[in-house]
Structures are given as C-alpha cells and as structure tokens.
C-alpha cells in the first residue's frame, strides 16, 4: 500500500516533518529572498509605470447589481468588485483619458447568483456587449483599438467564455467583442480556448480577515502529512462519474482513503484553516475548473500545495516561482501520490516551507481592504505594466474594423 517503502522509513521521515517547526523558519529566514528574480518582481511597485482610466458607467452595470446580493462581496469571484474599488482610489488612476495606457470598464458580470450562491453567467455576454456599446459610442478610445488597450476582469469559472460547463464554455469561446482586450481572470489552463494569449491569471478571492482570524501559533508542529477536505465525486452533476475532476479526485479517494498518511474526507470541519496549518502537504486537485481557493489557502497557511491539474496556469505565474513552492503531480499519477510525496527529501520540504513563509508570497495571493503593497491588486497592475508600451499596430486606421458586432449566438445579441 505504501509504495514498497518500509513502515519504519515512513515513520522516521514523518517524525522529521513534525520537527520542522516554524521557529527555525523564523530564525534568520524571514529575509530570505525568493529564488531568482521572482522576489524582485513580486515586490515591484507599479505606481508611475502605468495610468489607468476608469470608465464611469451607470450603476446598473456594477453597484446596483451588488445591492441586490451582498454575497457577491465574499464569494470567490469577488475580485471583480474589489478591483473596481481599488482602482477608483489607486494612484495609477488618471482622470484624463488622453494620457491613459489602459482603460477599465467596471462591469460586475459574475454577481448574478442562484439561491445557493452559484453565479449564473447567462446574462454576462449581453451585459458586456451593452457596456462596450456604451463606452464605444460615448468615448473615442474603444474604436481606436477595438479594445486592445482595454482590460476586463472576468473571474468566472471559464473566464470570458461565460458558461460553467466546460463543453459549453468551449463551444461559446471567448466573447467575440473581448477578443482584442486583455482579460484578467481566474481560469488558467494552457491551450484552452477560454484562455487567450496575454491574459493575466489571478488567484480566486479568499477573505483575508477570516483567514487571519484562524491563524494558530507559527511554531505548531505540522503533524498531518497530507490534508484534503472537499468533494471526491459530484454525484448531482456527474452521476456516472469520470467527468468531475476528470476522475482525479475519485482516484485520490479510492487509492488513499485507508492510508494513515492521508487525512482526507468530504467533511468540512470548523477547524479547516487550523488543520491546514498543521499539515505538510495540502492537496489542490482540479474540480470542475482546474483551480480552487485551496491554492490560496495553502500559501497563506504554509501548507505545500500539491497541484493535481494538468496544464494549469497558476496565478501570476510570471512572478511567483510555483515550481519551487508547490509539488506538481500529473492527473494520471494520482495512484502514486504516496510514493511521490514520501520521496521528497526533508531538505526540499524545508525549502518550500521557507518560500511559503515569505510574506510577499502570501500578500500576492490576497485582495485586502484597504490595499497593501505587493498584494494581488498590485500584481495585476504589474502584469498590465509589463505589457507596455503597447505595440503601435494595435491602433486601427480611422475606418478600419476588425471585430464583428453581430458575431456569436443570437441570444447574446438581445438587449440587456
Ligand atoms: C465607434 O464605432 C461605432 C460602430 O462603428 C459607431 O457607432 C460609434 O459612433 C463610434 N464611436 C465614436 C465615439 O465615434
Ligand atoms: C507589433 O505587432 C506586429 C503585428 O502583430 C508584429 O509583427 C510586431 O513584431 C510587433 N512588434 C513588437 C515590438 O512586438
Ligand atoms: C458577422 O457575424 C455574423 C454572424 O456570425 C455573420 O453572419 C456575418 O457575416 C459577419 N459579418 C462579417 C462582416 O464578417
């Protein structure tokens, strides 16, 4: 069951993990820089490197929608709201569109929730289209580039494909009118029609105060080897099995439910955040989408994320050395997870834990209120700044048109 390793060896190895307390990490380690240039990139200050113009839209595109359902402020797609608020008072904001490098259209497209709190993206295409029609007729900037110097925050499951079922999302593709814009989105999977070249992948929103409130003393030993809480099967939406998480979660359960090194279950205990701080490895398998908030929670709680999601594009991948922080396991290798994890040497584990202890790493995963240096808002701005200056070829000739306003499903063309 344990991949041929002797029980004694495992216990010895296990004992050494328990011994890696945060005390050692604190002693002189806090100033350790993240390898390579990533640390410098993370701590970059975007102020002075870009100017953003925020379009003023009628409140029906943003504030009114939020008034109808305040849950939009706490769910994992809340970045679209907090990014708007952040930009309104950010030093990179300019009130003079003539000097702007980037244009931002504040549309809350992910705030139409079912009674259970799941976002329904069905109106989002019409809403986006309506907003773009408005900015393109009231200001001259959209028509200049057809959106190539505009960015949109689209944190939904499959970004601007605006559907929660992958097949349907792929069929729809990225909303045509957003084809030239830069998308800031949670969804990230290589070679996927819903991830456009040049998009900025961000972490899902996880409530900073709530996580802060559950911090336990940093020298608490990590006595859990592998931790996971969540679904293994989604019987409601995938009754036959195999589609949900492409079977990876089911495989975790089938292979390791009786393995004492694996603390895994579907129960969501009240000590969930505390448990992550007592664990060495936290599984972050794909679900319906490649990512989940576990990735953020792992980083915040110093639990090494074990990423099981082939071809995932992680948040701020150009700034954060994910390969060095986490462990990547191919979906097909889930049955070997025990051997893979027990073969990682204590030195390597300690190094990953030190990187995770770096405050700039945690800061980059959060959208705090108010904003703080190096947080996810700043990483987004850094991502936008790194795309400047714009290629001159984005500016269209006065009568040139590239986008087709009537492309896409007929339903998307109805007024919003
Ligand atoms: C931009 O182009 C659209 C469609 O061609 C046109 O209706 C609109 O008036 C133009 N906007 C401006 C500000 O000229
Ligand atoms: C600008 O865009 C054109 C056309 O897409 C491309 O050929 C050129 O290499 C780009 N220039 C730079 C500096 O990226
Ligand atoms: C725009 O898209 C519509 C719908 O797909 C299509 O019928 C029309 O021919 C397209 N127009 C142009 C100019 O390509």
From TrEMBL:
All copies of domain Exostosin GT47, residue ranges: 49-344
Classification via Pfam families: Exostosin_GT47
GO MF term list: glycosyltransferase activity
Localization of this protein: Golgi apparatus membrane
Principal subcellular localisation of the protein: Golgi
Name of the molecule in the record: Exostosin GT47 domain-containing protein
Membrane topology listed for this record: Single-pass type II membrane protein
PANTHER family, A to Z: BETA-1,4-XYLOSYLTRANSFERASE IRX10L-RELATED, EXOSTOSIN HEPARAN SULFATE GLYCOSYLTRANSFERASE -RELATED
GO biological process terms, semicolon-separated: glucuronoxylan biosynthetic process; plant-type secondary cell wall biogenesis
Family under the similarity heading: Belongs to the glycosyltransferase 47 family.
GO CC term, one of those recorded: Golgi membrane
Signal peptide interval: 1-22
Keyword ATP-binding: no
Alphabetic keyword roster: Glycosyltransferase, Golgi apparatus, Signal, Signal-anchor, Transferase, Transmembrane
Organism: Dioscorea zingiberensis
